[in-house]
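Priority: low. Protein: Glycosyltransferase. Input follows.
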Amino acid sequence: MKIVLHTYGSLGDLHPYIAIALELKARGHQAVIATAGFYRNKIEAAGLEFHPVRPDFPTDVEQQRELVRLIMDKQNGTEYVFRQAILPYVQETYADLMSAVRDADLLVTHPLSFAGTPVVEKTGIRWVSSILSPMSFLSAYDPPVVANFPSWLNLRILGPGFNGALIRLAKNQFSSWDEPLRQLRTQLGLSPLADSMFEGMNSPDLVLALFSEALATPQPDWPKQTCITGFTFYDRNGDTGLSPELASFLDAGDPPIVFTLGSSAVWVADKFYLESAKAALKLGYRAVLLVGNNNPSLPKELQSKDIGVFDYAPYSELFHRAAAIVHQGGVGTTAQVLRSGRPMLVVPFSNDQPDNAARITRLGVGRTIDRDRYTASRAAKELDRLLREPGYQAKAAEVGTKVRAENGVKVACDAIETQLKKDKNPTFHRVPASPV
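Result:
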């Protein structure tokens, strides 16, 4: 059958769906990734079908950097994503996605697929929604850690009653952001939804939570139709594995500390890699710095045979060879570190990263430093604890065993195939918004 998977965002938002699409294709289905045209070459190189869906990303390097800077802003990054990067284009997204699902049997949506619900309502197509990180559930029982909240504010000790009221207040604020979506629904003759940006994004039949139970367990206020699959891993860049230079570096000495900022925060690294190199030298450890394609080289005083600077490496081939990993806390990177069984230091920027960092700390497999406080001395101090206290090593190894035993791709595809066996629902039932 034809299955369309719609996603938008960084590689952390794309890779889980490529993993699922490849398995669906191996099972004999026609899997189509519908996303920004920016990713066409990567998707087609993986042997998958591609359908462009607006909005696209800028092609100019400086415009890309500015976009990431706005998205990663601690105070306003999440608001920018909703109000500037996605929702103003929801009519174009809807038109492109309607084209993508023509003759399709099922649609899989990303948490930011705001056009997905209207497409389902207009077409009656079978629908599976998905969540990449636990924060998206906004649970009063497992409250999120938000980037612009004070670091001392611990909502977990306040209880679900207080947290539920706080989340409702937050949703009321968010409701002012979705005017483009309300306009689209009016133009399409669809009734307004009570909560179009949150519950409205959840399929009434199946919500795939594409993460491990090591990161979060089901809560009473999660959608009852949620299936936790485990992580769905993919990290290829064409056919490229470890570069010969990186492989040689790893073979030449003790396991290094790996420093990475994923595929987005790397664009706004500032002094992260400079301070990281200093921290590694201070500790007497070798280091691998994954700096992307647009970062300057280290100053001469920090250039050393023990500091390897590389643009990219597949995490699945690198992390298990590290002593520890320092990263930005994106859920895709976090998943790969958990699978590796190595302890981690998280330096969260924005969006779901602070929440992922808090979960890692509570799990006992890592520690956290605020992005604005990341210096060589602080990083060295935190890394010294991770590397010397056996509890972190033991817990990371234990969780790594659990994550490696999961098969998120299989569980997700089995659940999708179950939905494919169901009849289409020509009438899509949603609770309408109150007229008051």
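The longest helix spans residues 11-26. Residues 341 and 396 are 5 Å apart (CA to CA).
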